[in-house]
Design brief:
With 283 residues, the protein is of the alpha/beta class. The chain folds into two domains: 63 residues, Orthogonal Bundle (Helicase, Ruva Protein, domain 3); 197 residues, Rossmann fold (3-Layer(aba) Sandwich). It has eleven helices and nine strands. The strands form two sheets. The chain has a seven-stranded mixed β-sheet with strand order 5-4-3-6-7-9-8, sandwiched between helices. Helix 1 packs parallel to helix 4, helix 6 runs parallel beside helix 7 and helix 10 runs parallel beside helix 11. The longest helix has 17 residues. The protein is elongated, with a radius of gyration of 21 Å. The termini are far apart. Methylates the class 1 translation termination release factors RF1/PrfA and RF2/PrfB on the glutamine residue of the universally conserved GGQ motif. GO terms for molecular function: nucleic acid binding; peptide chain release factor N(5)-glutamine methyltransferase activity. Keywords: Methyltransferase, S-adenosyl-L-methionine, Transferase.
């Protein structure tokens, strides 16, 4: 079968199942399966075997059934890096790239004093935040912590495959594995969905992504309370903390931070105008 015809076939099928970006997703399934570029796909002269066609059909059925595309192809592009993902690890999203972007801006200030600063990434998941910061600042020491064995396995693999040497991943619950350490910067994209809201999320999220990486408690703020309450002990003087937050959580997170004696609290809006990134500095 000609690849263009296969593209049309599975695009129509995905569209009939309510997939919004049916053509784009079909392109990705085919190019990933064949390990070809998009331009090669559209060259018009590419033929695919019956076995490969059936393989693509199987992946298409998984996508139509609600499984996230990122899990099906096994990776996602994050800030220019290939980050492997699968069942048991949260899929990195554009909002988290914004967190990394702001962290880079803040950490570049430390470069005027010393390149040897330290960063702690809590709830590291796939390791995307820690790995990206470690790559951008090769003289820094970056630590990533997660209580999930699966997450740590993915994080370590992602560091190795991206050839990042200055990042260290540790299994544990929040600050416990680094109880005797202090850092220049703490970053985190913690769980922040209200428990009762999880079942109203899209099927590809609630049925496939790890609930522990989503559930922020009854009001979605459990992890902000735990992190901000304890963070001053683990931050150096003038240290900063940068957190991704959920929709309409800015006021609550600010109050929690102020009660924990953070100053210079600011919020960065995401691409939709939502206050998405919290930045605070230790008093």
């Amino acid at each position: 079968m000609n690849a263009i015809n296969k593209l049309k076939e599975i695009s129509a099928f995905l569209g009939s199942k309510g997939i919004e970006d049916a053509v784009k997703d079909a392109e990705i399934l085919i190019t990933e399966t064949l390990h070809i570029s998009k331009s090669k796909l559209y060259s018009g002269d590419l033929e695919i075997s019956e076995a490969t066609s059936k393989q693509i059909d199987a992946l298409t059925s998984r996508l139509a059934g609600g499984e996230p595309l990122q899990y099906i192809i096994g990776h996602v592009n994050f800030y220019g890096l290939k980050i492997n993902v699968g069942r048991g690890v949260l899929i990195p999203r554009p909002e988290t790239e914004l967190l990394v972007e702001e962290a880079i801006k803040q950490l570049e200030e430390f470069m005027t004093f010393t390149p040897k600063f330290t960063v702690l990434d809590l709830c590291t998941g796939s390791g995307c935040i820690a790995i990206t910061l470690a790559k951008h600042f090769p003289d820094a020491d970056v630590y990533g912590i997660d209580k999930s064995n699966t997450a740590i396995e993915y994080a370590v693999r992602n560091a190795v495959e991206n050839n990042i040497k200055n990042v260290h991943f540790i299994k544990g619950d929040l600050f416990k594995p680094v109880d005797n350490m202090v850092f220049d910067c703490i970053v985190s994209n913690p769980p922040y969905i209200k428990t009762d809201d999880i079942q109203s999320l899209q099927k590809e999220i609630k049925d496939y992504e790890p609930i522990d990486a989503l559930d922020g408690g009854a009001d979605g703020l459990d992890f902000y309370r735990m992190i901000l309450k304890n963070a001053p002990k683990f931050l150096k003087e003038n240290g900063i903390i940068i957190l991704e937050i959920g929709y309409n959580q800015a006021d609550d997170v600010k109050n929690i931070a102020m009660n924990a004696n953070f100053r210079n609290v600011i919020f960065i809006k995401d691409y939709s105008g939502v206050k998405r990134i919290f930045i605070g500095r230790k008093k």
